[in-house]
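Please predict the structure of the following assembly.
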Amino acid sequence: MPTSPPPGRWTDVARATGLLGADDAVAQTIFAEMTSLAARTGAINLGQGFPDVDGPEFIRSAAKDAIDAGRNQYAPGDGAPELRRAIADHQRRHYGLDVDPDSQVLVTTGATEAIAAALLALVGQGDEVITLEPFYDSHAAGIALAGATHVPVPLTADDFRLDAAALRAAVTPRTRLIVLNTPHNPTGTVLTRVELEQVAAVARDADLLVLTDEVYEHLVFDDATHVPIATLPGMGERTLTVSSSGKTFSLTGWKVGWVHGPAGLVTAVRTVKQFVTYTSGAPFQPAIAQALDDDAAPRALAASLASRRDLLCEGLTAAGLDVVVPQGTYFVVADGQHLAERLGVADGHELSRRLPELAGVVGIPVSAFCRTGSPTASALAARVRFTFVKREDVLREAVERLHRLPR
Ligand code: GLN
């Protein structure tokens, strides 16, 4: 047997996500790589975004009850009826969106499947797909899986805002779809209504579809408000909105996500999804239906995350790492330039790889969210993403460790 994998579509995926080259035989995501690095070195893992406290007991009990009640065989292909109803109610209650639970909602195995299935369903060879840059890795992977061409549009360098002129300039006759992500991973930017109006104008003018990843919709801070682009005039008919329960309820391993939009677009996604996973985790679906009816848990999580964000941002700043204070998500991007210089390491990528050994803390290089060799990747070479979805004592210890670095 060959020791390295044979050629195939996997190489496109690995190339699109910057994983080809280092070690072709181990093309795993930067998140998995950094988590195993943390485990190997005993460092504090502020890399991969997952909570170190599980979601509410009533939701976990509901899943156990569903198992005991016999919800253990295939769920309906488009998702359990009570979950589709809860998703439609949630969208109406929070955003005033009118969603038909029977024809306009599809339950998926996390947002990741929704995004990949939507891209596979709707774009292909010769189509251009725009994302913002930095971008979440699975968006680039999905575009590569579909065989389409990825056109990244950089956010502004200093404060990670939309560059509307650059977005408009990126559209060509081949552009089919814009992948949006707000609140944005890795920067924590929450796009304002004005920015979203600018995206919407481009989509309407060029007759584009929009696929929007809103998994951090409830994790917004201060006076930021999450606005789904599907609520803007003329956008409901061209937008697929993706979200999931993992972030909202601190249950990232359950992988219950969904997509909603016009019936025709949802039918296209369902057609692909049924041959990827067929159906998704049956007993988790009624549990998430109960969870979605209750807004208290996400509200409490957002409040506690806001104070943990403050703790980490203040600690990073005190340790000499400047931050762009995020308005949402699990993440803050810090500038490691000065620290890298002090420690004599080349850039953020090198800094992220050596921080476990140097400081006992793990972060993710922001260049992993950029196209390899792109101007954005160079501009953000010294930036490192840290997560604050960890217990306060863990964050305090991480901050102390960074503070102890030579200055
Ligand atoms: N979404 C999480 C992050 O950005 C982790 C996802 C993953 O491990 N693929 O860190």
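The first helix runs from residue 9 to 16. The CA atoms of residues 35 and 346 lie 22 Å apart.
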